[in-house]
Amino acid sequence: MGFSDLISLDQQLLLSLNGSESLFFDGLLKTLTTAATWIPLYIALFYLVLKNNDRYQKVVLIVICAALCVFFAGSLDDMFIKPTVARWRPTHDPVIGLDVDSVNGYRGGRFGFFSAHASNTFSIAIFFALLIRSRLLSVALILWSLVNCWTRLYLGVHFPGDILVGLLWGGIVGTAMWYLYIRLSKPYTTDATYVSEHYTSEGYELRDIDVVVTVLAFTLAYAFIKACFFV
What's the first-to-final CA gap in the chain, in angstroms? Predict the structure, then answer.
């Protein structure tokens, strides 16, 4: 299979995943793809970090590494990769652009390779999964990232290839930032290992993790309720 065949397959996959005849799903996916929708989740993650670290240096390092996840996974993409690669978004693609369903005229910028939504959210998911070591939180954050990926396909602003590369790069960045945190936090970290049904192996209290997952669930519920009134 040649490169042109891969591009054609990517286009056909996008058209099969893009849009629907449902105003409910239009409203739901538009809400879920909006960055402001997830502000409560970010606040909850900050609460989790603040509550479970007794050294302010570690809290600052975690915040810096999380910010670097966003910078390296998304900001560099938007500033350099997209304009350099210059691959059209589906909504602007001269070949299939007219066949792509859009919601309320939302088309995104001209170029879409690779997906900053995919790389940003997956880098954060992987970073916190490695940091906290909670199966529940890891699954919840990875699903959250995949939901964000789905919104980009549904809205027709990314090809599946854009999403896959974004996930790959996000995973690399999230892992790299975790390694950076481990290296820089050594002077402030003890060798204690938590063996308790109330804490993760990294010392994060399970009921505080439940707060984050609950906030995530309520955010999804908010998106569903808002979609019921989408016009």
Answer: 43
